[in-house]
Specification:
Layout lengths: L1 E8 L2 E6 L4 E6 L1 H5 L9 E8 L2 E7 L5 E2 L4 E2 L3 E7 L7 H14 L2 E7 L8 H12 L3 E4 L8 H8 L3 E5 L6 H8 L25 E4 L5 E4 L13 H4 L4 H6 L17 H7 L5 H21 L1
Parallel strand pairs: 3-5, 8-9, 8-11, 9-10, 11-13
Antiparallel strand pairs: 1-2, 1-4, 2-3, 4-5, 6-7, 12-13
Length: about 290
């Protein structure tokens, strides 16, 4: 029998089969011996043990996977950020974009809580940066319903993983998109300026009429595992387009002569903010490499 893991909890894997039945499965010990961890999103083969219970016997090859949140076979990443409460953090968004670009997952940017923002000038400047890069963006409000239908259409027929800082409104957004599922939501702490984690495990929720969306534990940091100094530039679309014109192969776009990226920066053709984030990430990767030596 075959199905897809839609939830993993306390050693059990809940498998949704082709007849839309859910099976409670355990994984064979051979996976642990091989160092393989079944993930939400995996297509698996399993054998029935009793009524709605089974053992996972095989995991089909994955097209991609994330370590945090642990999920596989993703079509797109919905990066959810509030325009306010908590304040929008472009550094965190760029960090998330680097990770999903490196894995090859299509990003979809969602900005929430549009009804709460009074001063739009700075946020509009931020929107322009990402629109010019070609990223698909949706502005939403769970209160007024702004952008909800547009977002629902963007999720149809795809497996989508949500990511974003605590308090950005991910669970509230999912409650709007999936009204048949009621998820716990949390208020933003006035003292800390961020929300409480309201999701405790990874789960794929079925959308109507089609599509699956992953409700994932909140997080605020992502590391750059498997991203090197040489590959970081390719995760920035504006650098990826220019680096072939650099004078030296392997240019890190920092101080090398004949750098096309630095030239574009001086001509205000790329975002200074994004370039500074690139340098910060580059330094982080180099520091991490030196510590491992």
């Amino acid at each position: 029998m075959e199905g897809r893991i839609i939830k993993a909890l306390a050693g059990y894997y809940y498998v949704f089969d082709n007849e839309e039945r859910i099976w409670s499965c355990r994984a064979r010990g051979v996976f642990k011996k091989q160092g393989i961890q079944p993930l939400v999103g995996d297509v698996v083969q399993f054998e029935q043990v009793s009524n709605q219970d089974g053992w996972i016997t095989n995991i089909s090859p994955r097209k991609n996977s994330l370590q945090r949140p642990p999920i596989a076979n993703i079509d797109q990443a919905l990066l959810v950020h509030a325009v306010t409460e908590p304040s929008f953090n472009p550094l965190l968004l760029d960090r998330m974009l680097v990770v999903v670009e490196h894995i090859g997952i299509v990003p979809l940017l969602c900005f929430t809580k549009a009804d709460l923002l009074e001063d739009w000038q700075w946020i509009k400047q931020q929107f322009n940066i990402y629109q010019e890069l070609g990223y698909q963006m949706v502005l939403t409000s769970a209160v007024s319903g702004l952008g909800i239908d547009k977002l629902r259409r963007a999720l149809e027929g795809k497996i989508t993983v949500l990511a974003g800082p605590s308090g950005a409104g991910k669970s509230t957004l999912l409650n709007k998109i999936c009204p048949h599922v009621t998820l716990e939501t949390g208020a933003v702490s006035k003292k800390l300026g961020r929300g409480k984690h309201t999701t405790r495990h990874v789960e794929l929720l079925k959308l109507s009429p089609s599509g699956l969306v992953a409700d994932t534990p909140g997080f605020s940091q992502l590391d750059f595992t498997n991203i090197t100094e040489d590959t970081l530039g390719s995760t920035f679309p504006e650098i990826r387009r220019l680096e072939q014109d650099c004078k030296y192969r392997g240019c890190l776009h920092r101080s090398e002569p004949g750098c096309a990226v630095k030239e574009a920066l001086s001509q205000h053709q790329i975002s200074t903010q994004r370039y500074e984030h690139y340098l910060q990430f580059l330094n982080e990767i180099e520091t991490s490499r030196d510590r491992k030596r």
